[in-house]
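User: Reviewer 2 asked us to show a designed sequence for the structure in our supplementary figure. I'm pasting the structure tokens here. Could you produce the per-position amino acids so we can include them in the response letter?
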């Protein structure tokens, strides 16, 4: 009977590749895959895929994403490609890779690629978190690689602001892995689940994760420290000259009022720091704190008629040291 190349076995999605003879079909190999094109796509968010796969000479299982429509920024690689997981042959590592005009060469290779170890005999959890600032790849909840958006890089470096759809497939026998060794067939990838999440509107307001992400920084120096916290054990510290941390928000509702605030203190009387919001479709707003013990400040802002994004910030205009903690965002 004809093998089923994309099927369910009661527990998993099973994607298969083999060299079975199919009547009336002269192709030497057949393989299975699934894609969400035309049914589901996303711009920013989190993808989790729990899967395992066989090894073999010529095998190439992959979990990846392509834009919809495909030609938003031109043909491949200008359009962009996000490879959450790729594996070839019998290697003990898998790969996270980004493709675009900036990092992909004429032979299809990318300089934005990272090899990562995985459990070769069992399921692994492959995760991608895609924000307006970067794309992060994890294996079994451990961060392996970050591809960051570069200011001024344009769409050549960051074509990743349009919808992308998901592809899961068991391929092989061409390109990167080389020829198939028939003795190693069949190849298969078993997928336990695929989960997709929206990113929260605002996150890491208390810095208890120990990292600045998803805030970005510029200026003097910003770091998460384990002293001077208002609550918990960590806060943000800004030192040196003019300094700021910012978080780009997406998914806001147009013509809607939000409330953004937080707590801050300065190390020396006479210094100041501002909590504010900009780029929301209206005039930037901010509130200033200049106390040497933690004080609260907040602002309200209303998004424009067609605005779904904004940037919140914690900004120190002059030299000195300031601390911030327990930032929050609420929809009014």
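Assistant: Here is a per-position design you can include in the supplement:
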């Amino acid at each position: 009977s004809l093998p089923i190349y994309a099927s369910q076995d009661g527990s998993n999605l099973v994607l298969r590749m083999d060299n079975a003879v199919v009547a009336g079909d002269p192709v030497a190999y057949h393989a299975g895959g699934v894609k969400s094109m035309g049914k589901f796509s996303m711009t920013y968010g989190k993808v989790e895929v729990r899967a395992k796969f066989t090894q073999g000479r010529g095998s190439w299982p992959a979990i990846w994403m392509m834009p919809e429509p495909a030609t938003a920024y031109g043909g491949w690689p200008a359009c962009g490609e996000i490879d959450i997981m790729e594996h070839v042959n019998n290697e003990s590592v898998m790969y996270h890779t980004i493709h675009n005009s900036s990092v992909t060469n004429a032979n299809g290779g990318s300089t934005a690629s990272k090899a990562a170890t995985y459990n070769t005999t069992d399921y692994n959890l492959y995760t991608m978190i895609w924000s307006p600032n970067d794309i992060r790849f994890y294996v079994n909840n451990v961060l392996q690689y970050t591809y960051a958006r570069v200011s001024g890089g344009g769409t050549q470096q960051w074509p990743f602001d349009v919808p992308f759809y998901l592809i899961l497939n068991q391929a092989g026998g061409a390109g990167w892995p080389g020829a198939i060794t028939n003795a190693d067939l069949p190849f298969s990838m078993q997928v336990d689940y695929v989960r997709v999440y929206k990113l929260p509107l605002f996150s890491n307001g208390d810095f208890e994760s120990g990292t600045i992400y998803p805030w970005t920084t510029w200026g003097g120096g910003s770091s998460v420290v384990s002293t001077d916290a208002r609550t918990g054990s960590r806060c943000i510290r800004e030192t040196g000259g003019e300094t700021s941390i910012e978080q780009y928000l997406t998914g806001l509702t147009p013509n809607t009022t939000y409330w953004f605030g937080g707590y801050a203190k300065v190390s020396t009387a006479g210094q100041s720091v501002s909590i504010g919001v900009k780029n929301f479709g209206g005039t930037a707003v901010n509130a200033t704190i200049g106390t040497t013990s933690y004080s609260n400040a907040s602002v309200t802002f209303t998004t424009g008629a067609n605005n779904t994004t904004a940037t919140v910030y914690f900004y120190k205009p002059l030299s000195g040291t300031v601390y911030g903690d327990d930032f929050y965002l609420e929809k009014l």
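For the response letter, you might also mention the following. The chain is about 0% helix and 50% strand. Residues 6-197 form a domain with the Jelly Rolls fold (CATH 2.60.120.200).
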